[in-house]
Amino acid sequence: MEKKWWHNKVAYQIYPKSFYDTNGDGIGDINGVIEKLDYFKELGIDILWLSPIYCSPLADQGYDISDYYNIDPRFGTLEDLDRLIAEGKKRNIGIVMDLVVNHCSDEHEWFKKACADPDGEYGKFFYIENHKDGEPLPCNWRSYFGGSVWEKLPGHDDKVYLHVFHKKQPDLNWENPKLRKEIYKMINWWLDRGIAGFRIDAIINIKKKLPFSDYPADRDDGMTSMNNMLAEASGIGEFLDEMATETFRKYQAFSVGEVFNEKDEELPLFIGNDGYFSTMFDFSAELIEEEMTPDLYKNAIFKAHERVEGIGFLSNIIENHDEPRGVSRFIPKDALSDATKKMLAAIYFLLPGIPFIYQGQEIGMENLDSVNDLNELDDCANADIYENAIHEGLSKEQALQLLAEKSRDNARTPFQWSDGANAGFTTGKPWLMINPKYTDINFASQKDDPNSVWHFYKDLIALRKNPEYESTFVYGKFIPFLKRQHNLIAYNRVGDKHIMVLANFQKDAQTISLPSKIKKVLLTNVSKTPDNFSSTSTEIVLSPYELLVVEMV
Ligand code: GLC
Ligand code: CA
Known about the structure:
By secondary structure, the protein is α/β, with parallel strands linked by helices. 28% of the residues lie in helices and 17% in strands. It contains 17 helices and 20 strands. It has an eight-stranded parallel β-barrel with strand order 1-2-5-9-10-11-12-13. Strands 14-15-16-20-18 form a five-stranded antiparallel β-sheet. It has a three-stranded antiparallel β-sheet with strand order 6-8-7, with no helix packed on it. Strand 15 (488-494) and strand 16 (498-504) form a beta hairpin. Helix 12 runs parallel beside helix 16 (453-465) and helix 13 crosses helix 14.
């Protein structure tokens, strides 16, 4: 594999609205990120991905952009961003922006012009179809947030436009070369400003299966999940290759795709040498629909990494702004503790690929325990989850409980800086509720405690970057160990060194035979410190929920 500058980096996702508010309006801002740059430096972060901060009506929290060339005043100004880029550079931290180009906002001037003249130049930037009341819609696709993907074009009773997300997010028509050119121009404008690259939003949706057609209904609303269309759409590669050539490749920019449903044969094109993207997220564990177990989790992430071995790099996550908190999802409720949070951290962090930390993960932030009222939350996707639950026969309380487990707002509650007012996030009124657990889980209480989750993340990053082990962690082979052993998640990383990650994901001890003797303990989540651990045989007993990262003889 050709070496690239991003291969050994550690990335962190900021959800700016909830990160740190410096002017008391209850909304996190760019200045808040600047103020915390030393926080990232101390942790060991190299790349900061900011969820969207462009001008936006915030119908979908900035994933609905009304001006690609400016910053929303609630987050700050272009000058603030330039300062963030410059201050980041001083600390060797690259800034990565979110690239949202499957759709824009209905308040973007392109869409306004399209409404004014659907047959004109900007009408062709979107998917606009003729439609009369009473007639069937162009197709029965269900938008990701619920309801039809078709909406009446404002001012035109006889026309509809396509939105696969919210109705305030009209899809851009990538079949139109003029639109594509506008997008590339915009991307390069940002790269020229000095950002390190982009996280590329919802990109798999840019290729539609045309002409529009129905798929079998999969709920009794008569509609069909977008996945059915995506499985049949082909030819996205031409758009992605063109975009990469016109933009990222010219700048050696880092690009990480939000990619789903890619086919095996497409992998080298997506993330191989000179692929469309530097890397893409591994969502295999996030996509598990059954009740989570350690074995399901293991099988998903192992399979994903075996699939790309020798081809390219995945970006590893346990959560993001679209998912509930990873510790609440992957660790059984009765086992949730600092020790298990650390275990989960090491398991995913030392896999091949680029580790991403989502804000708050490094202090072990958890889901909400309960939701009392739909109005306590904010996300535009909540209504569909709630209504569907009621429709399926759940009570109001059960539907709210489901939101406490599933809502994207779990990841969006403000960062818990301290146990003070509003968790130290703002001096004003926070835009979204603070998770009541902030009194126990916050950065201030962890920063001076060497046994805290936060320190464990710091140690984990330091270990991955330790010059003695770095090349093994970055380029070493990934070889699963005792894959079929129930509740054991274990693997080898083999390069200059032989490292093993061993996690006993259960409440009973578990004995295993190692392929050789342990030379050195590099990291653990138990009081057994690296210095006092000695093993004389290759057989070891892992205590309940014990994690060991070891160098082998
Ligand atoms: C991506 C984003 C999500 C957003 C959607 C539409 O999945 O991560 O937050 O709602 O795209 O832009
Ligand atoms: Ca603010």
